[in-house]
Write a structure and sequence with these properties.
Distance between the termini: 39 Å
Largest sheet: none
Radius of gyration: 22 Å
Number of strands: 0
Number of domains: 2
Structural class: mainly alpha
Strand content: under 5%
Order of helices and strands: HHHHHH
Oligomer: single chain
Length: 98
């Protein structure tokens, strides 16, 4: 659940309260308060690169085996089907066969 920026700024403006007291008062976690003090805007995306799937190898696999199912690619790359789905999405490959 994402809190609004107005709420985050309201919580941030509370004076003379520790993180623990503020967290109890608004029923949120202390880690959220610390994060909101650094950056009150909500994070919209993860900037984490893919770690297991080599994108060049995946491109080659797409050329060699264009009709493979995602679960078959996942077995070849030793990852889960959702990992292949996300990697194909990053490459801009659709599921539709032409």
């Amino acid at each position: 659940m994402t809190y609004t920026i107005d709420f985050r700024l309201k919580v941030k403006q509370e004076e003379n309260l520790t993180y623990t007291e503020t967290a109890r008062r608004f029923k949120i976690g202390k880690a959220s308060l610390v994060r909101w003090n650094k950056k009150p805007e909500p994070q919209t995306s993860r900037n984490k690169p893919p770690t297991k799937i080599d994108m060049e190898r995946l491109k080659e696999d797409l050329i060699k085996n264009p009709d493979s199912y995602q679960y078959e690619r996942a077995q070849r790359f030793n990852v889960r089907k959702t990992g292949i789905y996300c990697a194909l999405k990053r490459l801009g490959v659709s599921d539709k066969k032409r």
